[in-house]
């Protein structure tokens, strides 16, 4: 990518983050109701700190830090670059103020522009590109964290009419048959991708079938009615413990009111449309649903091999695959090597993308990953057999 | 008190709460870094809800609730008046917004004024008076909660130059001798007092001596240097567990920087003045300090009997007395009966008052109480023997 | 006491501990189902270690420790005498074996006999006496810990027919009137007592009435039927939290079977006799019961002043008094000073004695103390007003 | 297998379990120092209950349960067959006594013999075989649980001289090269295997090398000396948290005494032989070790494809593979279907076998599995690249 195009991409991405926050009250920027959800203010600062830490500090001549404490406040998990606020404490910090964080963003934006107007900066394209994609990843979290913050407030305030969460999947459900054989897996191209997609390699797949359609809210309601959450045989032992300890009996944000199902959305509390794809379920729930049908989730390889045959992008789709390195995977050196590799244990791969995914942020080889009990993302499922 | 005077007192008190909040950023109103500290926004709302719940709802004709959800959001611990937000969740709520809470305050202020302009309202003076004193109690918490919120922020922002935390006690330390005999204890007068002060009764005290001066920062530094926090023999078993589990080695807000003691104050980080009274210590620490001197804390009765002989009001002073009912104590009926009685177990009595105590809010018979490990109030100690 | 008499007392006490354990299987000696309950094996060893540590080690010439590791294994809480097994880990230790612990007892018994046959030992009478009373105190715990171990086993095995838990209080309930005035409190004599009973002093009591009879099981059943455990107004805030978090709805060991109340006893599961005094209730429950009657618990001073007017000794009786030092209380120096003083915070005083109390172990001035939520002792209540 | 041979196998297996327990004191049968370790008494009962529940109850005419409470006491995790003692409570139960449990074993042994002397019992061979292998699996746990119980006792008692934990791997370390291509994986034969080994299928492997030798204690000491436990870059994020929260700095049972490494073994505390394979490490540690060498763990498929080229059976070997179902895996119906399938999440596969593995219990396709932080099994590692 040429510097100009890349800078445009940078500016546009930086702007989009602020657009997402535009409907918020200042108070909404501050809170952290559970450990996995970060305050919007923190996302704004952290994505900015990433550019400061990995580009401006090492490469921008005479660069002065906006505030020397911000490295401590806005580092997320990079052990290589110093101490950081414990993740559970992010919601305890009223300062820096939202206004100050926006000033920090402008300051860093300006410094990046200045850095990249210099000729020698071309070598830094790759880091800038990672920074942009890193921010896009946080845009998705920002949306789902905002949903969590407002959707768990007793007043259930609406977020914005501009975010449409619930696309219809109106096509007929069909099974796509895939033949036994060797398939190529992993990224092959010269655009941007993460290191965990690299190492294009062959996998041998038995013959299988995969649905062309996501499981819908209506189908999930039937699962609930048929005792899905009370039948231990559908669940992993660990999933069953999770269900009982947390008294789970429906997807996140679902409320049963006078015998009807509602859910919290960007518009506030809404009646659930049975024809839209189910969202906000954990891997445990996706697995149990498949078991109740005598079916299963696809592996990430089955998904990747078949993905051109069905529409996707509305839901992150849980797969049966554990998040593991591809053959010949090698962590990058230094702090950027902490991006993916150190999370490759006890998580499941998700494929696809969701209504919260930023443009240009997903592709057929993209591997998202979460722990098996989490469900504040727009997570759904597709069946295989 | 005549209605007019009382209404003036009401208006002035309501105004003072907002004055305390004046230096805050909106973000500061929202967070709850630990369970004992409530968000300032919550104090603003809760003190208002108190008037709405106990005066307007039952007595104001045609009164319309400002928002029906606020009873849920702003009830603190009154089990008799319905469900309430769990105390640990107060800092997870970004809404209602600060602006909305101020509107709630104005709305209720206006309704109270209207109610008390009606002739029949004279019977309600007592409840209004409790509400005013309730708000004064929260003013103190508001100040100490703000200090906690800012003083535990990694940026250590100043609060305001207008709040002076550190009065000097420059008089010479002397022992006041009190003779053995019967002393009267408890409120005797016709002004306002809480139910836990009532039931004036006699207690028999052995002869004792009590210091005319609070223990100072300098004396407490010596305690630290002499191994006070590492000598188990000075501590209660429970206090010693607390010290070790929480790695306590100095009063709250104290920082040792290059061999010198600083503390966080309303002005930000300041060098500690050895001549000012120590603050922000738990009962456990007060007890251990006394033990290290071969002395003890006074009981609340010894304190009350001797209080006219020494100046007080700079620090809440820990006593050796457990918080228990006076003879013939009887809880009031209904929700207001929950004010004091139900906390009379496993807490210690504090006497005096502090730099954060609102005017007209303390008196010689006033009994404050906290759990033995808490120290975010301006708590200090006076020795006895 | 003369050496011979004291040695007889020692031998008899040591023997009685073993008699209590006689009905046990070896397995029963080992387990620790909750932190407050210690394995019987540990009691056998700890009471023995006390004599070894405080008498034999310092005073017996050429004494050789039975096993150098036992100080670590059997020290309870004496910080002054070295490291110790964490209390929660006592039930994780299968070794030393029960047989070895009995050998330890014999070895120490013999060494004590030898020590006290020497002339100079007369100075050590006081420590021996403390050791004997210490063991008597543990005999009580031994009985209640055994009850807990067997009574929480799903097989509910009987302990022994020789331990009678349930004395009848068949006399008529009457109120004893006590006049306002000064009363002497604390031990006055030359027999054995603990340091927390010393410092005979005067207290001024308002006039009061105290029941001549303990509250019975039948009365407590009525409390349950009348919603005692679901009426928050009867409870302290902390007690109410305890009830809900632990789902308490009856005294410990009570089981409702087909609409009838049974309880686990030394004989196994038995129908409850409504005329015997209630046992195994926490302070929180005792307080709530009194509140439900519009009455209260006596203070420990009221109890002591009135105790000659009613029979007692069947139940430890909760009082309203916090466990605090008497005037002029002074901790003994060294490890023995840790016996009482360091527990004088956040506990309540119990007066009386119980069916599990060893002979010669209680007296009118004896002060027992426990935390407010505990109830595995034979704790009951007497009302006052 | 013919009935006679199978019955011999049964008798021999049942006997071997008791032989393992022969060196124990009765006390050792009872304790449960951590949740993953069960009391030996429980293993003795649970393996017996398995035969009673799945063979005698459904198929033995007129069979009378030994004790109706034992299903509750000795069920491990089979949700389909009723309530059970919570796993953390197994060490709180002193009853049934060890003697009673041995009587239970004899009773059930006799009943099984009687059942299988009847002609029609041939259909039940499969269940009996599962029961035998189930008991063999528990024999391994029994040995490692005993080691944990004794090895965490402050007295560090020896277990038995007859159990040799530390085989030497004296052959030269070499890399075995395996070619890229398709390999068959899974059980193919007519002997016994578990359902998780079935479904022989092809996997495509890139070319790789695998060591012919396990990593040794000496090599692991070098890892420690070189800062292995303090270099975050070697660890997964979750592994790093585990290291810090549990202050892990060496394999389990290792003690550094005066600068030399000792470990607890069946013989008591012994100096560590640097030439024997390392044991008692978690997956996190195995992964970090490999990272520190710039190498990796083999996948379970790589291991299975190469296993004929190296000796194995001394250590359970951690692999990089998550424990997942093979293609076409289908849980058996009913309670026996809970054996494997419900654990197929968030665990890692181990291949090989160990010094604690019973004869005839492992094979090249055998898949063991544990959570990533566990290390009380004889777990080691082999490198790949």
Automatic annotation (TrEMBL), chains A, B, C, D:
Gene Ontology BP terms: ergothioneine biosynthetic process
Domain DinB-like: 10-128
Protein name: Ergothioneine biosynthesis protein EgtB
Biochemical pathway: Amino-acid biosynthesis; ergothioneine biosynthesis
Keywords associated with the record: Iron, Oxidoreductase
Species whose genome carries this gene: Croceitalea dokdonensis DOKDO 023
Domain Sulfatase-modifying factor enzyme-like: 175-306, 313-385
Entries under Pfam families matching the protein: DinB_2, FGE-sulfatase
Superkingdom: Bacteria
Membrane-spanning segments: none
């Amino acid at each position: 990518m040429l510097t100009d195009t890349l800078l445009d991409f940078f500016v546009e991405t930086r702007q989009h983050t602020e657009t997402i926050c535009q409907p918020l009250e200042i108070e909404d920027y501050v809170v952290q109701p559970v450990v996995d959800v970060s305050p919007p203010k923190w996302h704004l600062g952290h994505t900015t700190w990433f550019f400061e830490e990995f580009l401006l500090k090492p490469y921008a001549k005479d660069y002065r830090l906006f505030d020397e404490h911000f490295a401590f406040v806005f580092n997320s998990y990079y052990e290589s670059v110093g101490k950081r606020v414990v993740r559970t404490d992010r919601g305890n910090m009223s300062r820096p103020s939202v206004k100050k964080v926006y000033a920090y963003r402008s300051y860093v934006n300006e410094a990046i522009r200045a850095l990249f107007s210099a000729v020698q900066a071309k070598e830094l394209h790759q880091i800038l590109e990672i920074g942009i994609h890193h921010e896009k990843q946080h845009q998705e979290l920002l949306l789902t964290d905002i949903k969590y913050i407002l959707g768990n407030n007793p007043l259930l305030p609406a977020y914005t009419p501009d975010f449409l969460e619930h696309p219809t999947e109106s096509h007929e459900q069909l099974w796509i048959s895939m033949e036994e054989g060797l398939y190529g897996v992993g990224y092959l191209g010269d655009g941007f991708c993460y290191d965990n997609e690299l190492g294009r390699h062959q996998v041998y797949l038995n013959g299988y079938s995969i649905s062309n359609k996501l499981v819908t809210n209506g189908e999930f309601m039937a699962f609930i009615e048929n005792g899905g959450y009370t039948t231990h045989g559908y669940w992993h032992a660990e999933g069953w413990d999770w269900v009982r300890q947390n008294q789970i009996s429906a997807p996140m944000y679902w409320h049963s009111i006078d015998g009807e199902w509602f859910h919290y959305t960007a518009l506030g509390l809404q009646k659930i449309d049975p024809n839209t794809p189910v969202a906000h379920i954990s891997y445990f729930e996706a697995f149990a649903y498949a078991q109740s049908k005598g079916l299963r989730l696809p592996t990430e390889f089955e998904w990747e091999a078949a993905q051109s045959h069905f529409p996707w992008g509305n839901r992150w789709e849980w797969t049966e695959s554990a998040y593991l390195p591809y053959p010949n995977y090698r962590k990058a050196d230094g702090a950027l090597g902490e991006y993916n590799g150190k999370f490759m244990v006890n998580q499941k791969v998700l494929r696809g993308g969701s209504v919260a995914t930023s443009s240009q942020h997903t592709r057929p080889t993209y591997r998202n990953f979460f722990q098996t009990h989490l469900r504040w993302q727009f997570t759904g499922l597709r069946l295989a057999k």
